[in-house]
Amino acid sequence: MTRMIERWFPCAEVSANSSAGWGSGATEIGLFPWFAKRPVAQAKAAVVCSLLPWPEDQAEQQRLQELVHRAMSGRYSAWQMLHDEIHKANPEGASVLDPFSGRGMIPLEVGRLGLEAHGVDYSPVAVLASTLLTDFPLRDWSQEPRLPFAEESDALYDDRPRLIVDVRATLDEVGRRWAAAMADYYPEVNGKRPWGYLWAIALPCQECGNRFPLVGSYELRRPNQKRGRKGAPPVVDPGQSFYIEADPTAGTCAAVVHEGPPRRTPTLTRARTAEGRTLPGKSAICPFCSHVHPLDVHRRLTDERRATDMLLVVADHSDDSGKEYREPTQAELSAVATTPAALRELPDPSPFLSAIPDERIAPGNNNIIGPSIYGARTYGDFMCDRQTLAFVMLTRSIAEVADELVCKAGVSPDYARALSGYAGAVVARKLRRATRGCALDPKLNKVHDIYANQGSITFSQDFFEVGIGTGPGSWSSLCKSSMSTLSNLMTDILGTPVMVARGSATSMNLRDTSITAVVTDPPYDEMIAYADSSDLIYAWLKRALHNTWPELVVTSDEHGCQEKTEEIIVKRVRGEAPNEHRTREHYDTKIAQAFGEMRRVVRDDGLVTIVFGSGDPEVWQRLLTAIEKAGLVMTGSWPANTEASNHQGKANIETTLTMTCRPMAPGRSPGRKGAVEAEIKAEIKRRYPDWERWGLAPADMLMAAAGPAMEVVGRYSEVLDAKGEPVDIYTFLPLARAAVQESMAVEINHQPLETFDARTRFALWWITLYNRQIRAKSELRWQALASSLDLAAIRDLVPDADKGVRFIAARDYKGKIDGDSTVIDLALALAAASEEGLQAMGQVLADAEHAADDTFLWAAVQFLADRLPDNDPDSVRYTRVLRNRAGVVSAAETVAANSYEKSQLQLIDDVQLRLT
Predict the structure, then answer these.
(1) Distance CA 371, CA 879 (A)
(2) 10 Å Cβ neighbour count for 566?
(3) What percent of the chain lies above the pLDDT cut of 70?
(4) pLDDT in tens, 892-910
(5) Pairing of strands 95-98, 116-121
(6) pTM of the prediction?
(7) Pairs from 801-804 (Cβ < 8 Å, separation ≥ 24)
(8) How does pLDDT run across 452-502, given as a tens digit for each residue?
(9) Rounded to an integer, what distance in angstroms lies between the CA atom of residue 472 and that of residue 480?
(10) Beta-strand pair 446-447/440-441
(11) Alpha helices in 266-384 (DSSP H)
(12) Are 355 and 392 spatial neighbours (Cβ–Cβ below 8 Å)?
């Protein structure tokens, strides 16, 4: 049976719904931090279209398409009809597996449809995250006993799902115990509990020996003008800043808080040498003696553990400005001074765990784990002493509450896992706004995310510690948002729990041919180091959940962190990492094995659908090689713009492909390259009218062409060239793209595109597809391949622009015009010369030695004038060239005549000179 995804996919709906609303996944990702976001819209479409059939009858095709359109309008839209159609198409039952489930977005959509879903991931942190999202919310917990610390009214009058009520009670109880345990270390001032505390690491000056803090910004709160109450004038908030005041006599320094913008230069800033050369990075400047410590010096001092933490400023709540900053009181400084001793006295939570995380950071992780550049050796080294103590007591409170749930309340082990797991999720979210990587945001009065840079953990010399009160990043704030997320997830919830397991995608505990469809979003080469980036979370979760999730404690990793032997990534290494095995060869080998394992467990008539997010031709080549080695054949490829919005952990991709593969048919025979190429062209020509009818954009057709091309190639055991040598299947992808262009039969002012010279054909096709849009550099490589041109031959036409490429503006064209110039070069030169007048344009035309009525030239100029946006300066330039066509031609003739006359006079002079 042909499946819908092999012939059609709701690209437009996936793109439209991936950036906001139900389809973005914004609700789902709020439950637990992870580093790759798969939009719900794409996950849902991939699952549904992999399970629905594609009938021969066109009316039936349209009916099912309309059903999918309806289903893509909301989380549970057309649920019953969709559910019934899937069961009708799969009478033996439908099951879906995601062997790289991550946070569980794809299995969640399967479970929401009421189908059998399996999620597998190698990271125990990911398994926890996906279980909390895809399993526990879909279970019935109504028979569990009442919690001892739940309010009586919760049990009697609350009509919310039992899980929501009890998670709320558990989080509140953890918060109460934690606040009580830490109250002495975060004293109230004037009856108020501060929001948080600004710290900085302090280093001894290499000149005067005095210790001073490294502060990159003195700004605390931005100036702001708020609208006053009705009839009252605006309220002007001047903002707040501070500076470091040094006392050379005492050898001490402290922060001085004041209103308004900063008055002094911070101690961590750009500096120059005596010769005026700017030093790299930021230098630390001593406020006592002004001695400059370049980046390499203060980084070395920090790495040598010569830094201490210095409390600078306290942030209170304010009715007027939201947050109000002040110097710390003596009581607050004294409370800070007691924490080192308290840390030393902490007992270990179990025989297998230390109180403070002692899991070591693996060598070569400097580019992933920022604190490792600045002296951190373990995952317990990321915080100041008081923050470390706070996290120890917080995780201990969760473990104590979990024990009581089982021993005193008598809840089932699974329910204890669920309730403590959601508390652990809040710990994970709190870690995102903690450690020395968490800086203050003076504009929003919030704290930054340590995972802001695509999964890498940041480090900041000045950092913010959120206290035990209220405010952004606090336990109460995070619990409130977590409960909102869980409540939204469980609103009108439908479906069945997902079966989530920890394991390797290369060796799964599933029977052969037992799965209807595999739908997965595999890791992309070296994009994200999932395990290394989440080891900080792992270290603290072990301490919070060691009694309810004991499997978290078990690891064979030599550093005590998550296991990485079978992790399928390419690890970007900085520094020495002699034992690092996650190389490109490792990735290519393991991803092929994983695809092979998917082929083993999927039914012979099933599908393996792969969501893939790289546009690099080389990565594509490696991916297709892995798919082929696994005994799979790609049969569909559909693009969608799923990554345009800014989400935590977003990688630098905008367009992702949803590809589907079938198991290779047995008994295939070899094919010949010429015949296969002809079949590919014919197949794409046959599919093209449908793509056009469905409104697929030309650029999307290029991506969609990969599916039918690979399906044709997959009919053969191998493809041989004229010499009988095997042909790499990857070579047919550029051909597929060229076949789309051929099928479109693009005309340039009534001139077929294929009749233009190759360089001009490339340029006009690029404008047809992308106009002035910035595109990824990989797309330029694809287009060069499809045009059978070397990249160097067209690179000047599509230069770099804003981290991508864009078609050249005429004013930037620097080419030399002569008799060998192509049509596009001449058109660009004419547009550039149009600013200077007829004479300059005529000179260009004359230099090119083109006929004045060159049909191809004027067709190209007309096309560019029409296609470029009206407000584009080049559109104006090409229009100017067209309007002055007669004058340009006349000027060119004059230039040519003058040039001829000069050459004749020069010839006469030369003859006379020889005669004399």
Answers:
(1) 57
(2) 16
(3) 95
(4) 888 777 764 555 556 555 6
(5) parallel
(6) 0.89
(7) 801/774, 802/774, 803/652, 803/774, 804/774, 804/775, 804/776, 804/777
(8) 877 899 999 999 999 999 999 999 999 999 999 999 999 989 999 999 999
(9) 11
(10) antiparallel
(11) 295-303, 330-337, 339-344
(12) yes
Enter the DSSP assignment of 243.
E
Alpha helices in 661-757, H assignment, sequence order: 673-693, 698-704, 706-713, 732-744
245, β-bridge pairs: 254
Q: Alpha-carbon distance 579 to 581, whole Å?
A: 6
Q: Which amino acid makes up residue 55?
A: P
Domains located in the chain, CATH noted? 4-135+497-529+569-664 (3.40.50.150), 190-225+237-328 (no CATH), 797-901 (no CATH)
| Helical packing angle, 673-693 and 706-713, nearest 10° | 150
Q: 274 falls in which pLDDT band (50, 70, 90)?
A: confident
Helices 617-629 & 732-744 angle (0-180, nearest 10): 110
Tokens 């009586």, located at residue: 152
**757-762 contacts at long range (C-beta below 8 A, 24 or more positions apart):** 757/822, 757/823, 758/787, 758/788, 758/789, 759/789, 759/793, 759/794, 759/797, 759/822, 759/824, 759/825, 760/822, 760/823, 760/824, 760/856, 760/860, 761/787, 762/787, 762/789, 762/794, 762/797
Residue 650 has pLDDT above 50, yes or no: no
Size of the chain in residues: 916
3-state class (DSSP) for residue 272: strand
**What is the Cα–Cα distance from 323 to 445, expressed in whole angstroms?**
7
- Identify each DSSP E strand in 535-685 by its residue range: 602-612, 632-641, 655-663, 671-672
pLDDT band, very low/low/confident/very high, at 651 (cuts 50, 70, 90): very low
| The residue type at 298 | H
Could you give the C-alpha distances from 304 to 44, 297, 300, 373, 374, in angstroms and in order?
51, 11, 6, 10, 8
C-alpha pair distances (Å), 26 with each of 188, 576, 808? 36, 38, 37
Helix H or strand E encompassing 902: helix 885-915
- DSSP H or E run through 220: strand 219-221
